Amino acid sequence: MIHPSVYSETLLQFLAPVRPFIEDATVSEVMINGPGQVYVERRGKLEKVPVRFAGTDAILCALNNAAQFVGKELDEQHPILEARMPDGSRLQAVIPPAAPGGPYVSIRRFSSATFSPQKLVAGGSLTQDACDTLAALVIAKFNVLVAGGTGSGKTSFLNMLTQFVPDGERIGVIEDSREVQVQREHVFYLESRPPDPEGQGAVSIRDLFRATLRMRPDRIIIGEIRGGEALDIIQAMVSGHGGCLGTLHATHPRDTLTRLETMAMMSDVQMPLVALRLQIASGVNFIAQVSRYRDGTRKLTHLTEVLGVDMATGRYQLQDIFVRHHFGEDGAGVLASELTPTGQLPTQLEQLAQYGVKLPDAVLVAAKGAGASA
Questions:
Q1: Domain 117-370 carries which CATH code?
Q2: Which CATH architecture has domain 4-108?
Q3: Range picked from 24-28, 126-130, 174-178, 291-295 for highest mean pLDDT
């Protein structure tokens, strides 16, 4: 077995043209489109960089090195590679014949930096009132999902939410590759594993979730919900495992719920659609929607409560607690926006009171102005 330090240095030597960007803390992703075209994402914006590989074989050597270390095959019969680099960065590659113009490689860098609530507020990702509201919801053990598109900052936002979990709680984290950084002491991390070349030894997110339920967690955090495990997670939320946190890909709060439906249907359990929707609406309490903007910033756009299902129409009932309003770009290309409370109050105020937390005054004042009752 190659020692990780030796593998790390060897791989970086193979990736020499892009090594400076892999080691640059301001770069979040490196994208290789064949030997002659390389892009990086720096501070949320894409830019083409003036480097190139000697040829296709140079990239394939690096990819074969990565595949060997993680025990996977990479050839014409297995043209897709998912691997993790020594620093935790995710490597995704597709080679010919599946990628005729490739190889195509994307390296999502692992960042050891933690995003504190104060840093996100200072950067305009959310307001102090929205931050305090989220803190109250997490402390009161509501189930909160962070939704957004690729590169929208879902995991960073999830990491921030974990800082609101009270000390002393036992937290179980389940991921495909480790990215969640829980800022608490009593945490156990579980990581899924694909099958080996003989098709043996696979450990799925669903397997890990079922194991976690038997390990006495106070909280369960799912790095990303992406398949049939969605049904198990929903049922756990409904059956009393409060305070669950997780992420998934969706572009709008309502899309988050329909995405959960689709993923739950991937399980081997058949359930009437109306029953599935009732479970989703009962299990998921709040959706924090995040988005990446053209100017490279990543911001919270909605904090939405899931109220239930309208039995007459079958549609989910939602209400926004915070919404971001947009005012166009300024002369520097920066998008002006403001995240404000809508005047709607969460329906389960009693649960907040049970945990000794309350909503920010600005939310209560907005609700009073809108005629809502606290």
A1: 3.40.50.300
A2: 2-Layer Sandwich (3.30)
A3: 126-130
